[in-house]
Amino acid sequence: MEQGPIVTVLHGGSAPDADLTAGMAVRAEVRYTEASGLAAALRSADILFVYDFQSDAVPGAWHAADRLSWLHMGSTGVDPVMFPELCASDVVVTNTRGVFDTPIAEYVLGQILAFAKDLSGSLDLQRSHHWHHRESERVAGTNALVVGTGSIGRAVARLLRAAGMNVRGLGRRERLDDPDFGTVGTDLYAELPSADYVVAIAPLTPETSNMFDAAAFAAMKPHARFVNVGRGELVDTDALVRALDSGSIAGAALDVVDPEPLPDGHPLWDLPNVRITPHNSGDFTGWRTEIVAAFTENFDHWTAGRPLNNVVDKELGYVPG
C-alpha cells in the first residue's frame, strides 16, 4: 500500500477537532504539534498547516523541513512566514483568503458607525443615568479611503458603499473603473487629505511597514478617524499617539497594534478617542471550522494534482489579484 503524505499541523495548545480533519487523516499521516515540537514534527513532512497563525515558531524550526513542498497559513496575512529561507525555497505558500473578509468588513462598518453616532458617549450617559439629548454625525456622504485592495479591502469597500459612503482605494496599481473602489490611487499622501475615515488593511511587507507615520497623520483631516484591521506594524505607534493626543486626528479604532499585545500602561489604553480590540475583528463564531475546511479543500487539490487555491507570491508577500 502506497504511503500517504505527512501533514504537520502547528497549533497553540488546542488542535483542530479530529472530526474536521477525519477525511484527511485517512489519506495522510497527521502530526499535531505545538511550537516546542515543531522541528521534530517537520522532519520528513510534506505539508505544514500553520493552524496557529499567530505563532512565530516556523523560522526557528525551518532547518528541519527536509521534504516540505507546501505550507498553508490559517490566516490571510502570511508575514510571520515570509523569512528569507522560505522565500528562497521551492515551498509553495497558500493562505486562507476569503474566510475573514465579511466579518472584518462588518467590524470596520461597526467602528465607523460607533464613531459617527458616539455610541460610547451614549453608554457613558446611560451608566450615569443622565438623559441628555445630543446630535450625531451622518455616515452617508462621507469619504472613506481603504488602504489595501485585496479581498478583505474589497469586502470593506462594498459594505461601506452600501452604507452610502464614498469609497476610494489605495493599492499598487492605479485604476479608474474598479468595480468595488471606483478609483484606486497609489499615492498615500495625495489620498489622505480628502478622507473622513482611513481604513488600513494592507498586507505587511517591507514597503508597507510604518507607512502610517507622522507625515501621514499630519496629512489627514483633524476630524478624520483611523481604523486599523491590517497589522500593527503598518503604523508608527508613537506617531499615532502624538497625532491622537494633539488632536491632529479625531480618533482611532485599533484591532491590531504594535507591540501586540499592548503592554499595560501604554498611552493608547487611556486616550479617550481610541477604541482597542484584541486582534479579533475577523473571529466570528465558527471561524476555526472555516479555516480547517479551507485547508482540507486545498489538501484535496494537492492530493489530486490540481492547482492550489490562494497561492502567495512570495516576492510580494500576498496573493496577487
The helix content, as a percent range, equals: 25-40%
Strand order in space, largest sheet: 8-9-7-6-10-11-12-13
Q: CATH top level of the largest domain?
A: Alpha Beta
Outline the biggest β-sheet. Answer: 8 strands, mixed
| Strand fraction | 15-25%
Rg, alpha carbons: 21 Å
Terminal CA distance: 41 Å
Number of strands: 13
Q: Structural class per helix/strand content?
A: alpha/beta
> Judging by the overall fold, what is the CATH architecture of the largest domain?
3-Layer(aba) Sandwich
Contiguous low-pLDDT stretches (5 residues minimum) are none
Mean pLDDT: 96
Order of helices and strands: EHEHEHEHEHHEHEEEHEHEHEEH
- Total of domains: 2
User: From the structure provided, what is the oligomeric state, counting identical versus distinct chains?
Assistant: single chain
What is the fold named in CATH at topology level of the largest domain? Rossmann fold
Separate helix tally: 11
CATH superfamily grouping of the largest domain? NAD(P)-binding Rossmann-like Domain
The outline comes out as elongated
Structure explained in plain terms:
By secondary structure, the protein is of the alpha/beta class. The protein has 2 domains: 6-99 and 285-304, NAD(P)-binding Rossmann-like Domain (Rossmann fold); 101-276, NAD(P)-binding Rossmann-like Domain (Rossmann fold). It has 11 helices and 13 strands. An 8-stranded mixed sheet has the order 8-9-7-6-10-11-12-13. The chain has a 5-stranded parallel sheet with strand order 2-1-3-4-5. Helix 5 (101-117) packs across helix 7 (151-162). The two termini are 41 Å apart. The relative contact order is 0.13. The mean pLDDT is 96.
